[in-house]
Amino acid sequence: MPEIRNFTLNFGPAHPAAHGVLRLVLEMDGEMIVRADPHIGLLHRGTEKLVESKPYNQSIGYMDRLDYVSMMCNEHGYVLAIEKLLGVDVPIRAQYIRTMFDEITRILNHLLWIAGHSLDVGAMTMFLYAFREREDLMDAYEAVSGARLHATYYRPGGVNRDLPDSMPQYEKNRFRDDAEVKRQNANRQGTLLDFLEDFTNRFPGKVDEYETLLTDNRIWKQRLVGVGVVSPERALQMGFTGPMLRGSGVEWDLRKKQPYAAYSQMDFDIPVGTNGDCYDRYLVRIEEMRQSNRIIKQCIDWLRHHSGPVRSDNHKVTPPKRADMKHDMEALIHHFKLMTEGYCLPEGEAYAAIEHPKGEFACYLISDGANKPYRLKIRAPGFAHLSGMNEMARGHMLSDVVAIIGSQDIVFGEVDR
Amino acid sequence: MSSKIEDLQAYLTTHLEGKFTSSVLALGELTLEVPVRSWLDVCNYLCHDEQTRFEQLSDLCGVDYATYGQAEWDTHASSTGFSRAVEGLKLDPFDFDQAKIKDEPAEAEAGKRFAVVIHLLSIKHNFRIRLRTFCEDSAYPVVPSLVRVWSSANWYEREAFDLVGIMFNSHPDLRRILTDYGFIGHPLRKDFPLAGQVEMRYDALQKRVIYEPVSIVAQPGVPRVIRQDQPSIASQERDN
Asked: In this predicted model, what pLDDT tens digit does every residue of A282-334 receive, in sequence order?
């Protein structure tokens, strides 16, 4: 009589459905998961340690690289913590710009999530569709910051610069003739706001397209419905936040409950699931894209009619204008001091949380009065979600693990930090 | 919101008397300092009491307070400028005894080196609280594990163990989590160098990955050292 025993399966770290560098050690009973043990840290770069040796402003760029598909939201959490300790006030226009870019980032993130998730589950087309829309939003990133991904656009006391008046244009080359270039540049003739407005008008139709492909798709539902069910109590216990928590039916959104930036002025709804399975989380995120679109529209409308500064005029924190530095000694000194040694934060600690596309992203900042953080703890939503992996995957088939990883929206930049 | 927090502070002061040493309300955030012996009691109470009902452990982190408030490197020629690094230290640039005091190891305050800080969130009441406990023994810091209270503490405590080296009593699975397999040391301790202890490379002769002590020298990141590669304008003029 042969002995029957569980066997261990190594999933990743180079598995395409592992979303980066997840190494899952799965203890299996036949094809059923008995225990899932995620091994993380393969992308650990020591962000928290690096931050401790640099002036505050030099670490904004590290925040982009945490969750590298929702860059500006990470920056937002970090600058909020600094602003909270510093007590610097942010101009209202900057608040709206931040709100707008947070929502652009949310759409960017959810597009990448739907692309990766559906690819894992077996729908190739979604990947191409989602990246088509991402392209426009990354162009908006580029127009405002010069970088398509790692923007480093938010600053303590505002944002780096005001929205540009023109969009970069496509140029003719061997592969693109005049007619093609003209077609590509059609929505780039106005300002960034015009470009984004054009996008927000198109985007709900695109989300409808995604839903046509997926929502009632038989295979999609067979793979997602009833998989990875989390009850609301367990979701809270395991530290789930964001769509993972709302998918389980808990109506909790920091944008509504603890508003920051200009969210208290915005009109939007919080989608909530009922069953807490992968399919509900899918529906929640799809609806979040539509709501983000609404918020962007409201921001565009406001930003069109209200001009003003986008940075605090406290030059201990933000650099003075270049023109002022040409004739004003004090401005020059401020600039030099800011660029070389930064600024000192008062002694104390602050916890600033934002509703990141993946959940609650927070920075816990301890300052001992120096010009660099004494300790910065980054609370990454994905870390808590992945720690719930064992419980979510237990009793499911191996192929369901892929669906669960996808619906957790794991990105290793933030899990490993 | 802030009045809610004040109510919470007043409520905790009456109901948890003697269980915490201080409660500070700053920047709209309430911080309780809890001794290790009542750590589990307080957390259990906060989690289950109807008036507090902190359902979620948002965050748990270990902090090494060894160099808190100290300048990073000693340049006593100037008490202003970048080298001060820490404001409000009020060092007298010509009093050399002060420098000696500062060079003493930070262990002077016994039992004040390692702390565990947690952030709790109440969805029901929509407020947060911060709890801090200092480990009693800096050489072997131990704190009771909160896994029984909040499941999410599991990985957070593994992380705090990995990066700061705090032990958690009765944790079900206290392994390293973020660092490499077989890693030695706790990177977020203040005495751990930024560049690390070892570097790894593939050795073509031995045909395997080997670890060796780091070859790069740790440098303060800022201010940048301005190198005198180019002869200064004054010396150029002199040469002409």
From this structure: 999 999 999 999 999 999 999 999 888 898 888 888 888 888 889 989 899 88
C-beta of residue A200 within 8 angstroms of C-beta of residue A296: yes
Chain-chain contact of A48 with B86 (C-beta, under 8 angstroms): no
Q: Do B152 and A252 touch (CB under 8 A)?
A: no
The radius of gyration computed from the CA coordinates of chain A, to the nearest angstrom, equals: 23
What whole-number distance in Å separates Cα of residue A227 and Cα of residue A231?
A: 12
- pLDDT, tens digit, 9 for 90 and up, residues A28-43: 888 889 888 999 888 8
As to burial, measured by CB atoms within 10 angstroms (0-12 exposed, 13-18 middle, 19+ buried), residue A215 is middle
Which residues from B are below 8 Å from A386, CB to CB?
Answer: 155
Distances (CA, A) of B54 to A151, B36, B43, B51, B153: 36, 19, 9, 9, 14
Shortest distance between the Cα of A222 and any Cα of chain B, in A, equals 30
Task: Tell how strand B56-64 and strand B29-33 pair up.
Answer: unpaired
For B131-187, what is each residue's pLDDT tens digit? 999 988 888 889 999 998 999 999 999 999 999 989 998 889 888 898 888 888 899
Q: What residues have CB less than 8 Å from A384, skipping those under 6 apart?
A: A238, A239, A240, A241, A359, B152, B155
Q: How far is CA A220 from CA A117, A213, A225, A249, A284, in A?
A: 11, 9, 8, 21, 15
Q: Is the ipTM of this complex over 0.90?
A: no
Size of interface A-B (CB pairs under 8 A): 130
Task: Write down how long chain A is.
Answer: 417
Residue B91 at interface with chain A, using a CB cutoff of 8 Å: no
